[in-house]
Amino acid sequence: xxxxRKISDxxxxxxxxxEGRRRHILEEYAAIGELNTKxxxxxxxxxxxxxxxxxxxxxxxxxxxxxxxxxxxPQCLGPLPAKAAAYCSKYMDKKxxxxxxxxxxxxxxxxxxxxxxLPQGKPEKEYVCIGVKASNYFMPAETLSDKxxxxxxxxxxxxxxxxTKKDGTVWGDGTVFAVGDCNYGCLGSPPNWEMPxxxxxxxxxxxxxxxxxxxxxxxxxxxxxxxxxWWPWGxxxxxxxxxxxxxxxxxxxxxxxGSGYMVNWWIPAALQKELIE
Length: 277
Fold this sequence. Notes:
This protein is of the alpha/beta class. It contains 7 helices and 9 strands, in the order H-H-E-H-E-H-E-H-E-E-E-H-E-E-E-H. The longest helix is centred in the N-terminal third of the chain and has 21 residues. It is globular, with a radius of gyration of 21 Å.
């Protein structure tokens, strides 16, 4: 944990505890309130579901902000279906959120700022919502990946969810399991995946935890016949909020680009997400 705080953008806050997270939220809320009063320009970098949700929440609760969102890809929501991307893009258009796609974030280039309608240069605030970063500082280096999203640091695991070393051998006599966001996220290598990359969202972690618990029960009974995990079906569900009163819901997505179906949207999808969360 001390290693993580050294490189944190808010090292004065200890987010291991609820009080630390509460203080961070209050600090950010107050700071955004001041920016809203000034009608400040805000740039959201990354138009995946996190960037889109953040931009639309800012627009709803702080309507005086001048918001811009960019992404390197040709549409928002990354690999999700075009229909869902179009729905979110139309919503942001309607709310006055400026969008720029096929655009690389290049803050040291004056032409970049002109391209996205900010010729004066950097806005008052930037939120970078691209990629993910491992925070597995508590684990021994022999269990952590040298590559992967954000430069590596993800916990190696096997098909039974047990933590392994870099060479694939079981670590900690097989009684330590890694589920959800913390693990490497896939098994095998492309194109012959044993399990393709799993999105780092909430539901897969819940299902993988169940798989791990089932194997703990098997081990507790003295058996070594553990059950292998699989690509969680819930990993293909994405509910993207567009402020508190609109959303879209994608079902049956997988690791293939553009897969899945937008099956719910508008107020019903917002209510669905409110119920789920």
